[in-house]
Write the structure tokens for this entry.
Amino acid sequence: MGQRVLITGISRFLGGKLAQRLEKDPEVDYIVGVDLDEPEVDLDRTEYVRADIRNPLVVKVLQTAEVDTVVHLNVVATPTRVGGRTAMKEINVIGAMQLLAACQKAETVRKFVLKSTTAVYGADPRDPAVFTEAMQSRSVPRSGFMKDSVEIERYARDFSRRRRDVHVTTVRFANFIGPDIEPTLTRYFSLPSIPTALGFDPRIQLIHEDDAIEVLVRAVREPHPGVFNVAADGVLYLSQAVRLLGRLPLPLVLPLVNPVAAALRRARVVDFATDQLHFLLYGRVVDNRRLKEQFGFEPAYTTRRALEDFVVGRRMRQVVSRERAERWERDVYDFLRRKGQERLERART
């Protein structure tokens, strides 16, 4: 018998694309997708089951289909999409608890793949330059996507201790980018003018959608127990990313960042979760050596190439030329430098 796979979140980009890739693999005998919404991509031999993973009946799906591999992709990062923070927490945390409880009862399950995020490391001015898988956040998450992700990983570790016969693979993805995927960051980068925090220029690290899908395929088809940072080589400063996009930066003083984000959220332009705004202030970079050396995967796209492919794929209109954007950025930094020098001189006198 070939591999039998269950995918949660089949209606979303990664779930649909993963199912398409697995359908082409003759060693995968059966695929079932679980979600409340139908898949948005064409699937030939994936069976769709309309179900809520928060319902304990999901164990019946696992047992009836004799699933041996569970891929959990149904983790929500934006509260507005699902009706608020309470609904988001129920889907993320309660959903993961129920799914893992179902997996514990299903004797056929031998592999569990969890899509997590590098957001578990947080974003704080005290952070190290690079996070490894062994490190933890310097700040205690109190709410939002980061808190949910930390809790879900903890439940997965507990499940791994209870079911030592099951390989648990946790893949912590950096921010996704690509011509087709639609996370919050791509919508932010698609704005005509990109709001930034005055005086902050965070380092950002991305992962191209194609590399992300390839990692998920290998996590399903190959034995890779453990935790892996999945991020491209190289980093970009946010100011560099804005120039590559050909967008006009809109520097905001720090007190205006949250109100502007709230306005964009209310207008349904970009669903900025408050806890994720820290990423655009302090940035986050992770070490991907374990991905290369132990998982055996080398990302095809660097962070810069991934962003460039996003630009080409979206055929983004250049609002301003790169040269003009660089000149305006230099003018802003010159202004800040002059003002800082003036304050220093006043303080001395």
Q: What stands out?
A: The first strand starts at residue 3 and ends at 8. The CA atoms of residues 179 and 315 lie 9 Å apart. The radius of gyration is 21 Å.
